[in-house]
């Protein structure tokens, strides 16, 4: 069973156990399911060094396209040089916004899907079928992208910054957030919104429609 299945099952179990049917569509019902998300946050912390290397190497790709010398020759070289230059703790640079992003994405995609689907059905826009699941997955993707984009911007900038004369441009996530808004305006927090949505949107559609279909085939109730 993969992590998404574990989290969804946990959410579904908690909601059914703790929340009366009449409350499942309101925000209290949504947020009661959120404690199950902390399992993903722990995994996000453990995997943060790999994400850091990915961000650094993506930046290296842009440097190479501009005729500049890349900093790293490969992922293992990146790990080695980061530890040598910044210490072991350097591998967890940007871990806080990374965790925040994971939490916001998961809150948007799971809780908002649940709420959006119930809203579509109650409004009689569609029955509990593939049309309702598609509309809810679109709303879920938009919510997840809108909520996570600021944390994604901060995470990427924190992970990609290199020390100049022993000093970093950002001393922490909050400092990065404030400086970004101050210099570039609040709209800078949603840079890359459409590419992010182009990645999350299709995933939400494929995952939720398939998940609902498999539940139906297995004789289980809709999510």
TrEMBL record:
Coiled coil: none annotated. InterPro entries: MCP, MCP_dom_sf, MCP_transmembrane, Mito_Metabolite_Transporter. It is a multi-pass membrane protein. Signal peptide: none annotated. It is found in: Membrane. Keywords: Membrane, Repeat, Transmembrane, Transmembrane helix, Transport. SUPFAM superfamilies: Mitochondrial carrier. The keyword DNA damage does not apply. Solcar repeats lie at residues 35-119, 128-217. It holds the Pfam family Mito_carr. Its main location: membrane. It comes from the Eukaryota. The chain crosses the membrane at residues 12-32. PANTHER family: MITOCHONDRIAL DICARBOXYLATE CARRIER-RELATED (PTHR45618). Belongs to the mitochondrial carrier (TC 2.A.29) family. This is Mitochondrial uncoupling protein 3, variant 3. It comes from Stylosanthes scabra.
